[in-house]
Amino acid sequence: SANGVTVHPWGAEQSFSDAVEALRNCYGDKQGKPFRVWIDRISGQQIHSDTWVVKFRKWEFY
């Protein structure tokens, strides 16, 4: 949902809208350079009727 929250590995919470806004500063950061992101080992667990914890491993290739 648009009202979701991201919880970073170090415990900090950030709204989805703030997370997307923060990405605006990264636009063009890798422009002109090969860059790939691979996500695997995705698992999800419902911990409340409207709350999920999703874990994954992210790989970045430059």
UniProtKB/TrEMBL annotation:
GO molecular function: sucrose-phosphate phosphatase activity
GO biological process: sucrose biosynthetic process
Chain segments annotated as coiled-coil in the UniProt record: none
Domain Sucrose-phosphatase C-terminal: residue ranges: 2-60
Top-level taxon of the source organism: Eukaryota
Family annotation (PANTHER family): SUCROSE-PHOSPHATASE 2-RELATED
Protein's UniProt name: Sucrose-phosphatase C-terminal domain-containing protein
Taxonomic lineage from the root: Eukaryota, Viridiplantae, Streptophyta, Embryophyta, Tracheophyta
